[in-house]
Write a structure and sequence with these properties.
Elements (H helix, E strand, L loop, with lengths): L12 H9 L4 H7 L5 E2 H7 L5 H13 L3 E6 L5 E6 L1 H5 L1 H14 L13 E3 L4 E3 L2
Length: 130
């Protein structure tokens, strides 16, 4: 299945960004990986409603776009872990602000707390919790 892009003849940065992360699963996957590495099974467990096929496709696209790192271990049974790259880590403050926007604009909804890492030391890859 080929990837669907919004046409972007004027090379708009927002359109480009939405082509990369603008579907229903990718921001959630980035959020889930915000606190460290996860295996495929955990990602599947934490995203009810997503099929294995769609999860695989979304992870491959995020990897192709340089937002996540796929680490394969030479073990039996096979083990693969996913983590955020520097590009993916750089999205966390933006996702945090989107989350805050929803809290502020929709106070009537009792949202669960989203635990997105607040700061990342990119040199050592460590997260600072809010």
């Amino acid at each position: 299945m080929s990837r669907k892009y919004i046409e972007n003849p004027n090379a708009c940065t927002l359109v480009h960004t939405m082509n990369i992360i603008g579907n229903k699963w990718k921001p959630i996957l980035i959020y889930l990986l915000s606190n460290g590495k996860l295996r495929f099974g955990k990602l599947l467990l934490f995203t009810p409603g997503i099929s294995k096929k769609v999860l695989t496709t979304q992870l491959r696209e995020l990897e192709d776009d340089g937002l996540i790192i796929r680490e394969k271990f030479n073990e039996t049974p096979p083990r693969v872990e996913y983590s955020l790259s520097e590009k993916g880590l750089a999205l966390l403050p933006i996702l945090r602000e989107l989350s805050r926007w929803a809290e502020n604009m929709y106070p009537e909804i009792a949202f669960e707390e989203c635990r997105i890492a607040s700061g990342i030391d990119l040199k050592v890859g460590k997260f600072n919790k809010e």
